[in-house]
Amino acid sequence: MKELTTHRDQFSISTDKSKLDVNSIHEFLSIKAYWCLNIPKEKIQTAIENSLCFGVYEAEKQIGFARVITDFSTISYLGDVYILEEYRGKGLSKWLMETIMNYENLQGLRRWILLTGDAHELYRQYGWTNIADPTKWMELHDKKVYLK
Fold it and tell me: Which first-to-last residue range defines the signal peptide (predicted)?
């Protein structure tokens, strides 16, 4: 799969995993991300290895991240999306979403899914909606898995 790097002003977005700052990603996700507090670094590393990742950078500094779990044919799950707090309000999350949603290898999928507790309005701008029939969805969720 072809790597993507795109630039806007002093910022860039890249799918090149060799550029990812795993320590920075782990710091944010394990300390500030309500959805995976206390996640071990090894779990982050494994998730990165098995996902399509989008890093957001100012020069070489990692300032944002998102990953897509997908079969590149029928379904994708969007997760671990963030922009560091001090970089918010600059349109970077919108640019990140545009980049992900327009990524060549993610076109023509039957379904995209994500979980969010606070960014509904961001995702709605890109066509996301609430689950039409939540009675069809099930989950197995261990909220304390990273505390064990």
Answer: none
For residues 14-30, give the mean pLDDT. Answer: 97
- The CA distance from 43 to 49, in Å, is 10
Cβ–Cβ < 8 Å for 81, 66: yes
Q: pLDDT, tens digit, for every residue of 56-114? A: 999 999 999 999 999 999 999 999 999 999 999 999 999 999 999 999 999 999 999 99
Question: CA-to-CA distance for 66 and 28, rounded, in angstroms?
Answer: 12
Burial class (CB in 10 A: 0-12, 13-18, 19+), 132: exposed
CA distance 17 to 23: 13
With beta carbons less than 8 A apart as the criterion, state whether 129 and 120 touch.
no
**Backbone φ and ψ of 63, nearest 5°:** -125, -5
Rounded to whole angstroms, the Cα distance separating 44 from 36 reads 10
Q: What is the Cα–Cα distance from 96 to 82, expressed in whole angstroms? A: 9
Would you say domain 5-147 falls under CATH 3.40.630.30? yes
* Domain residue ranges in the chain: 5-147
